[in-house]
Amino acid sequence: MSQDNLPIEHLYFTENDLEQILENLDVVRQQISPKISEDAVINEQSFPSVCLIGLGRCGSNIALDVATLVFNARTSYLSELEYQQQKAHEREMEPMRWIRRHLPLDDKSRTQPVFLIEPIVMLGDLDKDIEGRIRFSNQKGRARFLNEYRKLQIMDLSEVHAGGAGNAPILGQYLAKIILNKDTASFRNDSWRHMHSYLVDSCGIKANQSRLYFYIFSAGGGTGSGMASEFGLAQQFSYLSKTFDYKVVQNQQVDKRHSFVFEPIFTSGICILPNISGHNLDISEALHINAGRLLTKYISEEWNFSYNEEREEDEVPADVMKRIRPWNAMMLISNDIMRYAEQENGKNSQDIDVNTMEKYANQYISQQIFNILTAQAVTTDYDEDYFRRAGIDIAETIRLDANDLFMSLAGPVAVAYAESVVSDNVHQESVNIDDLFCRSIDLPHFNDDTSAIEGISILPIESEHYRESIQRYRASGFDPSELNQLHFYKNCSSIVSIISLPRDYKLSFTSLNQLKVHLNRLCPNTTLKRYALVIGASANLSLTTLVAKSPCLSDDFLTLMVAYMKRCFAKDEYRFSDDIDKTIIDLIRSDEFDDSLIEQYFSQYENPAKILDTNWYAIKPMYEKKYRELIEDQQRFVSINDIRLDIDNVKNAIRYLREIYRHRISKTNILTLNDNVK
């Protein structure tokens, strides 16, 4: 699809010159690849299969924390390994050294296995001083990390905007649209042109081996919440537009790097939801409205992309391009997890330090990213000697590649996590699999043995009721009837479970089967279940379960979404009553969808002025002038009015909730032609 024929909804700039794309990729590859021999060819170096994109202050901090943890773990592991090999060298003869290096004849003083995949990490913010904020951080070891972790790339976007988005997602979205609609060649900062080719222009093609992209951001802010979905849409638009450009397929090139044979990519938003309940919290707070806007926007786009049947059967690609959504899935992690964890420790949630809460919430998110990435990591993502040195038989591992996740996960996703300490002298049967599973779906809490944060990332129902349900679940001997009628579990469409083992620990078939039984009973209507077994990437036995689609029926999700609709869409006479709350619940539950009720309660477009303390109508022309100055082609002008959510977004979001609310499966019956068989 040529640049001149782009749908009016999407004016994202995409580089069409393949030679220029490949040249830009080579620049990025040279920046991120470790030093190689002089006779090596730079374009033969593969990109990591994973890219983390941290947007806004919260998102960039989390992505940076993940990269720092990876770097520190790898440094510690290799340093210890070098020391052990040096001792072995002093006491062993040459033949024995060869055997030791090629066979897993390890002694009991081995170092613990660690996660060694090194993703590309891209950090972006509308803060002019993002690089200074990162480089002058006083975190221990940060200076060395920044010098040596070459895969960290900072997106300096200050020439478009040198301040934040003022806690208004629509401004963050509009500024991101300016950045992504502007020709990359017109940026003074050359590095953006190169990173744009990596992130947007080349996704899915042979020359770019990255297949998984995780966008990390806070839903309650302005910059991350607004920019993330726009960046995701630009990437999806570029990917799909090249997919539908059939002329590229016919263009045969001698150089294989020129081939546009596409492979599936999996993109996910990792969305940090704000605190939603508790003392001294007002439900109409701007953070909640911002998060509600993002949730409404995403599930309405997901409905339009995946479920909307009001379309022509011979739909042309251009129509598909108008209905794209920013990510395949969006993982939901509530900031409330730290409040629950502190309460489990007997502390008063009102006295929890805000910085401590953010620190531990970031730790929880980092844990989930680790486990998701290990489940799909390919051998080229690891240190080249990792498997050989660690004594891991790669044939024993089961991984989930981008296509597995692409086909298994869609829409809103929740994360359940728990881990148990195991050691060489511990028998398999000593690990309580029932307890491990229950801890993974429990309210968030600290694991005193591992210092990990365990539990569900977003609660299915209000915390006190859920705590009582979990207690009854344990007391009943794990009777699933205590939980499997909650919509969060009953209406779940797909599950992905990742089991990570230390290299010397063998999980028995009985234990693995018990985990599957728990999942089958807890989620009786799940259409698709996928499992990944990762060996040697963890010092503990850990279980990560991704629950797809049904989290949109959780109390937190509904509360945030309806809070936004009431504040920014409701007509004046309904804005502060509970009429809309009751109506939306009724619309989700009722057999027929009466969209005339939406027309009755809501205005045609969202009103951003309802969450700002300044004059929105004075702000709007300021930002539109910035657009006209930076993108001179008037045919490519987009008004802020054009990116407002409208009443169709509200209708489609409710249609999506209705679809998930009615999710069921039919049991397979045994058929026979033998009448005499009873």
TrEMBL record:
It comes from the Bacteria. InterPro entries: Tubulin/FtsZ_GTPase_sf. Gene3D superfamilies: Tubulin/FtsZ, GTPase domain. This is Tubulin-like protein.
